Amino acid sequence: QVQLVESGGGVVQAGGSLRLSCAASASIASINVMGWYRQAPGKQRDLVADITNSGRTNYADSVKGRFTISRDSAKNTLTLQMNSLKPEDTAVYYCNARIYEYPTPLDYWGKGTLVTVSS
Predict the structure, then answer these.
(1) Helix or strand run (H / E) with residue 57
(2) Cα–Cα distance list, 63 to 49, 58, 99 (Å)
(3) What does the pLDDT look like over 51-64, one tens digit per residue?
């Protein structure tokens, strides 16, 4: 069981920056993939970025070049640095941890942190 707690959300003007953090209750070294997802009002939850335990990253096209994901196994934290924010980045951002187990992967979610980008 892994508990995830997000922080760092808030209100920022377009063009600004925010840094989201996700603190895990257990060692993240054995977590295969950690990621950030977001859900805007009335929309589905979509992947923003994820990172494997070997450091391979993956980004949604809409955030490439603006967001950077990183994980720190020593501190058991996942971070999302968000720059050049746009109003369309407004959403609740969720931290996810996925552990590959047979036959079904285990997914853990935080409760989310709200990011609001004003124009």
Answers:
(1) strand 57-59
(2) 8, 10, 25
(3) 999 999 999 999 99
